[in-house]
Amino acid sequence: MTRFLLDADRCELTATAHSTLHPVRAVAQQLNGWVEATLVDGRLDLDSPVTARFELPMSALRVDNPLLGRELDRRLEIRRYPVAIAEVEKVSDAGGGRYEAAGQLTLHGERQPVRGTAELRVGEAGELLVDGEVQLDIRDFGLRPPSVFGLKVRPEVEVTLRIVAVPSD
C-alpha cells in the first residue's frame, strides 16, 4: 500500500449550483490530504483497502458572484466551521475505468454519508490523477441556499474534484 499526498497547488474543487438566472460556481484550490491505495498495472487493487482524506479550508472558496460569495461565507459560518473534510471509506469498480467512492463529508459541522464517482489515472511520474464528482444537497448539512436581490440558488450542488497526489515515499 502506498500513501499519496495531495499536491495542493495542482488540486481543484468546483461547486456548481443553479439559480433562477444562471449557474453559480465556487472554485477552490489548496485542497489538502492523502490517498492510501495499492496500484497494479495503473489500476486500483480493490482487494486491498483504499482510503482517503481531503480537507478544504472554506476560506479558499471563490464564488464568481461577489454578493453571493459574501452571503455564502455568512451562511457557511466559515469562522466557526473553517474546514470541510471528506473521508473515503470504500471504493468499488463502477466499470469503464471509473470507480465509485463512498464515505463521509463533514460540512458546516454536520457529518453525512456521500457517494461519488471518479476516474483514476497514473501519471508519468507515478502520481495519481483523479477526476471525480459528487452531488450534494446543502440542506443535508443544515444549510439554506443563498438568495440575493431575487436571485435564488437551488440547494442541489454538483461538486467536481481534480486531484493530483504524489507518492510520499
Name a few traits of the molecule.
169 residues, mainly beta, Lipocalin, eight-stranded antiparallel barrel, two-stranded antiparallel sheet, 1 helix, 61% strand, elongated
Model description:
By secondary structure, the protein is mainly beta. It has one domain (2-167): Beta Barrel (Lipocalin). Helix content is 7%, strand content 61%. Strand 13 (147-148) and strand 14 form a beta hairpin. The radius of gyration is 16 Å and the shape is elongated. The N and C termini lie close together (11 Å). 27% of the residues are buried.
Concise account of the structure shown:
The chain has 169 residues and is mostly beta strands. Helix content is 7%, strand content 61%. It has one helix spanning 66-76, and strands at residues 2-6, 12-19, 23-28, 32-37, 39-40, 43-44, 51-57, 62-63, 83-95, 98-107, 110-122, 128-137, 147-148, 151-167.
Topology:
Elements: E1 2-6, E2 12-19, E3 23-28, E4 32-37, E5 39-40, E6 43-44, E7 51-57, E8 62-63, H1 66-76, E9 83-95, E10 98-107, E11 110-122, E12 128-137, E13 147-148, E14 151-167
